[in-house]
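Practice problem. Given the sequence and the SMILES for S-adenosylmethionine, write out the predicted structure.
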Amino acid sequence: MSTMFQKFLGCPVAFLLKIGNCFYKHKNFFLAILIYKIILLLDSHHFAARANLATAYFEKGNLSTSIPYFLSVLGDDYNNAWWHNYLSQAYQKNGHYDKALNEAWQAVDLSGGAQAHQLNLAYTIYEVSDEKGLDFIKQVLTKWYRKYPQSGIAQQCYRSFFYDKNFTRSNQDYVESLFDVFAPDFETVLNDLNYQSPQDIANILFEYCSSHKRLSDLKVLDLGCGSGLCGKYLAKKFSSCEIVGVDISSAMLSVAASKKIYKELIKDDIEHYLLHEKRKFDIVVAADVLTYFGTLDSLFAGIEKVLDDKGVFAFSFSKNEFNAKEFFLTPSSRFVHSFHYVQNMLSKHGLKLLLSNPKTLRKEGDKDVIGYIVAAIKS
Ligand SMILES: C[S@@+](CC[C@H](N)C(=O)[O-])C[C@H]1O[C@@H](n2cnc3c(N)ncnc32)[C@H](O)[C@@H]1O
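Answer key:
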């Protein structure tokens, strides 16, 4: 080992950096960190080695170790919002809530309000809310919303925290940037949260369609298709079905495209898309999508419009266990609905309830999200 070490010490720094970055790229953070440390033995001020060492520790999950390196990098590159963003996350995970918020703010301001940094501020506020208390969070949200009134993310957080009853669906910019950032990890994270709605929806559709002998050549519309989980399970169950996916997040759509199961993937807001779509579908699915809509009137009207006669709409929704309202925007910025409201909206739009299975849909933090898997037929 010591001879290997000596050999490394004899290498030019630029060459070592390339090797370190190669290990980093392949997520071998252990070896990347080793190489960056060797570089710092040769040149203790080497900027790229310090910066990459900080992010390598961060990505490896050693957040507290990453903090002094981020601080050292900020000494040379203070105006780069990303160092503040990383640092805020590292502070937050280590219980330094004031510092976390301060760094998240810096990132937002230095980037001129860029979406990724606003989103990090939203997460930070949400994560520190229990510890910092409601009054403090109110002040932060008010300051944020006043300073960035055009930001969809600030609007979403402010209005959900203050229970704004006129806020009836999620902000498009908020949803788009949330899922653009989330896309690379979406399936791993949802798997860890025991999310099974796509399988459940595919199963109930298969049972229903089998008993009605309608198993092939179906035209399917996957609303809020995300990374393509519904498409994946539906394509397994139904031979030669044509699936069209719609989503607002281009990053989620590119994950869906890589599955090669969709006939067409459309980047659009669901309500806008439904308003303009002229084709008819045998099946419409929406898994974990109603949670971005409060009122369901125009959404269900659009679904009624694109469903063929006897077409089936299958979806999941989270149950409003918080109060007696028809729908409610929770502090985590997700809408929950009462069963009665969903039922009323279905019948208002010519959709007859076929089945509704109560279900734990997934975890949120350490809590269960209770909801339903529903199927309705256009009658
Ligand atoms: C929680 S993910 C679920 C994805 C997929 N249905 C699944 O079950 O794996 C919600 C998806 O709905 C999309 N979405 C939410 N609101 C939307 C809207 N108004 N228009 C288009 N897509 C939307 C998001 O971009 C995201 O990809």
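Check your answer against the key. The CA atoms of residues 285 and 314 lie 5 Å apart.
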